[in-house]
Specification:
Layout (H helix, E strand, L loop, with lengths): L7 E8 L5 E11 L6 E11 L10 E6 L7 E10 L3
Parallel strand pairs: 3-5
Antiparallel strand pairs: 1-2, 1-4, 2-3, 4-5
């Protein structure tokens, strides 16, 4: 894979209901500025899956791309791990 300046995220597919679209949940850990407690935050991205090969629970790598629809700005680069 060639190096690009585009953002890449690793996440888990939570929905593959749409045609050629998957919803990917990306988790991150942040330390609270006052209480110093580690919090788990998550964001959901809609990503383009050209071949409809992603399923719920798959771990995927997504990359930022041009707007493909009103809410879809990411595409699936590769499936890192299949759901069990």
């Amino acid at each position: 894979m060639r190096e690009t300046k585009r953002k890449q995220r690793e996440g888990v597919v939570v929905s593959n209901r749409g045609d050629k679209t998957v919803v990917v949940r990306v988790d991150r850990q942040v330390r609270h500025p006052i209480y110093k407690r580690v919090m788990r935050l998550s964001a959901r991205f809609k990503a383009h899956d050209e071949k409809n090969e992603c399923h719920n629970g798959d771990k995927v790598l997504i990359m930022e791309t041009r707007p493909l629809s009103a809410t879809k700005n990411w595409r699936v680069v590769e499936i890192l791990e299949r759901a069990k």
